[in-house]
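Handoff note, outgoing to incoming analyst
You'll be picking up this chain. Sequence as last confirmed:
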Amino acid sequence: MLCGDHDLGGVRVFVIDDRADDRELWSIVLEGCGAEVAVAESVADVLAAFDRVRPDVLVSDIELPDGDGYALVRRLRAAGSRVPAIAVTAYARPQDVAAAAAAGFTMHLAKPVEPETLVAAVAQLTRPGPDAEPDRAERRAS
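Most recent structure output, in case you need it:
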């Protein structure tokens, strides 16, 4: 089953990809498991909407039309954001995985990614823990 044991109810995911079909696929998959999904196709779109969306996790491609995912995550980290970020990209060499980690990505998934793998990754990064944000923990409990 696509969602398996992963209920993403109340989890806000921000999907960033310049390809409309990828944004749509990931939205359908994640929403089907209960997540609230916002999408963007560029760095500028993410920066303009980030505070409004208040995501629990980012799912971002690396190659974007007005920059790249590395710069986006570095900028968010410099601004104080600790939101977990998953790089979903065709760049899958060991040095690409290392570059994603160095930029501040929490996880790296090589395209093509099975939907179940993405759902499991989002679930892993958003499980409530002892230091979880109170509003996220409350959303997940309701």
